[in-house]
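Design review, sub-item: ligand-bound model
Attendees: FS, YL, KQ
YL presented the inputs for the nicotinamide-adenine-dinucleotide complex:
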Amino acid sequence: MHLNPEDHRLISGSFTVIKEPPGRDAPAQQDPKVVETVTGMLRDIEQNGMDAVLRYARDLDGFTGDDLEIDLAKAEADFAELPESLRQALDTGAERTRIFAEMQRKHLVDFSAEVIPGVECGQKYVPVGNVGCYLPAGRFPLLASAFMTVGVARAAGVPNIVSCTPPSRGGQAHPAVLYAAKASGAERMYAVGGVQALAAMAFGLLDGVPSDMIVGAGNAYVAEAKRQLYGKVGIDVLAGPSEVAVLADETATAQMVAADLLGQAEHGPSSPASLVTTSERLAKETLDEMDRQLEGLATRDIAGNAWREYGSIYLAEDRETACQIMDILAPEHLEVLADDLDWWLGRLTNYGSLFLGEWSTVAYADKGMSGTNHVLPTARGARYTAGLSVLGFLKQLTFQRATREATRSQADPVVTISDFEQMPGHRDSAQLRLDLIERDN
Ligand SMILES: NC(=O)c1ccc[n+]([C@@H]2O[C@H](COP(=O)([O-])OP(=O)(O)OC[C@H]3O[C@@H](n4cnc5c(N)ncnc54)[C@H](O)[C@@H]3O)[C@@H](O)[C@H]2O)c1
Ligand SMILES: N[C@H](CO)Cc1c[nH]c[nH+]1
Ligand SMILES: [Zn+2]
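KQ shared the predicted structure:
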């Protein structure tokens, strides 16, 4: 996550680049090789159906069985082997995510009102019918993803939900992922990952019911598959490799900044992390602190590569300039470690989710402990979307009904506009009604 040369003209204040990625690589989700691979896989699966899905499951993920469906009743035995503390933590995350999603749902209200005399318009929220949830589990089993997708879809009232997760453990799905899914209300689950999972849900290859919408984060292949399937099915957001940015002033410590940057950099070797600060001291100390903390981090190979190749630090002359930089970077997660948090909350607009102050951190929300969603836009998508929430599973449907007396107020202007556009079919719909009221007068 860094500024491109053409971004600089959008920033009116002055700033100094302390660190930027050495190369100018495109983010992995736009890698042409990934695009090509995914296109080929989707074509193959569309043509060859379940045979192709099983082939990819075996070749890419070492799947060993013949049936991708997971028997959740059988999985109960494995759940007992999971540590009790883990089961409790997963129950807590599932519950908190559900509570927040239900609160959000309550704040989305149906209404209807008379917009002009005799014309009533309204909106009502209706859940999507068939949703396919993707629960990533390639590099790590991301347990909380089930809360964010299955659990939130349930809170939205989606009637039919299927879930897929890669057979990442010895050719089988990870029991902790299954437990988290079950705690979130999952009923039908399949041990299949990546492109083949998304295609199987979109094409209805698993249970014969094509998903209307596919949701969930994943690696670059997953994000690209969703991008290419969009249109055939709805998607939530292009949630690719995780990112984090920190805005910090003189009050922040390099220790906390570095810990929170590395907390996301460990997701993958191309997971970007960025610091934008008004403090020269903090900028310099963070550079050293990143190296120091990396030495002791078990995931240092991944996180170290991410930081070296995709990390950045900018020193801004003031907080407004720092915000202008952040408006452009539009990070998935944005932490503010600074004074006057309400000012930042009011000023900032481009982020997937915002973490205000030292007592909030991305890791809490990642694991479902605050209740907000962690399926969030990456690669600057936060300029136009806030990511997955209960709203993502709802259609905001509109309707209208009018009285006979309201005919002239709509039909007359429609005749005028249609005549000008030379669309006689539209004109006739309006004119028919005008004639009817004329006849009866
Ligand atoms: N942006 C968000 O909201 C968000 C949220 C959670 C996780 N994430 C991201 O999700 C990602 C999870 O990635 P992951 O890899 O651990 O798990 P994953 O489940 O997304 O991907 C695993 C799948 O990738 C496929 N795959 C791997 N190599 C392939 C290849 N060469 N060709 C075709 N398919 C291939 C395999 O089929 C496998 O099933 C991380 O990058 C993490 O940062 C993002
Ligand atoms: N940071 C990821 C969202 O981008 C979500 C996650 C779950 N567990 C760990 N991280
Ligand atoms: Zn994370």
